[in-house]
Amino acid sequence: MSVKWKEGAKSEGSELSSVRLRMQLLNATCFLDPSLNQTGAGQEPRPAERGPPVRLFTEEELARYGGEEEDQPIYMAVKGVVFDVTSGKEFYGRGAPYNALTGKDSTRGVAKMSLDPADLTHDTTGLTAEELESLDDVFTRVYKAKYPIVGYTARRILNEDGSPNLDFKPEDQPHFDIKDEF
């Protein structure tokens, strides 16, 4: 059974519901952070505040930040980028509506607007063009705009065999600063 993010969310083949759902998500985000409303047409949202230097997270390490411990920050990853979503505790904390997304890379779930456990993975295989577009939109306008980046998943930087992912270029990553690397 698939649990959708909003009541009335997209049913199979319903483009209008998908557009409405994305608009509801963006409206809710702008309501929660009014500074996002100051973005003009064609402008990118302002970047989140810069936090401490980023680090690499294994799946096991990221799982420790799933919102279960009251005194721990709450982290989640989208597209291999780990965000500190603690400031949205009412959404991501223990018992909160989107807590299922935390402590892991939930890229597929974000793309599909789904909380189905099968969708709470980094795997984007088989996503539609519309889902990929939605993923990029939410990644940029919600997560990158609102939450500090605290690291990357090991999967983003390393291949499954542990060898370096040659496609990963730190200088192309958000908040990269060569001084933080040494």
Automatic annotation (TrEMBL):
This is Neudesin. It is found in: Endoplasmic reticulum; Mitochondrion; Secreted, Extracellular space. Gene3D superfamilies: Cytochrome b5-like heme/steroid binding domain (3.10.120.10). Coiled coil: none annotated. GO terms for cellular component: endoplasmic reticulum; extracellular region; membrane; mitochondrion. Residues 161-182 are annotated as: Disordered. It comes from the Eukaryota. Its main location: endoplasmic reticulum. Residues 57-154 form the Cytochrome b5 heme-binding domain. Belongs to the cytochrome b5 family. MAPR subfamily. PANTHER family: MEMBRANE-ASSOCIATED PROGESTERONE RECEPTOR COMPONENT-RELATED (PTHR10281), NEUDESIN (PTHR10281:SF72). Keywords: Acetylation, Endoplasmic reticulum, Heme, Iron, Metal-binding, Mitochondrion, Secreted, Signal. One of its GO terms (molecular function) is metal ion binding. The lineage of its organism: Eukaryota, Metazoa, Chordata, Craniata, Vertebrata. InterPro entries: Cyt_B5-like_heme/steroid-bd, Cyt_B5-like_heme/steroid_sf, MAPR/NEUFC/NENF-like. Interacts with PINK1 and PARK7. Residues 168-182 have a biased composition (Basic and acidic residues).
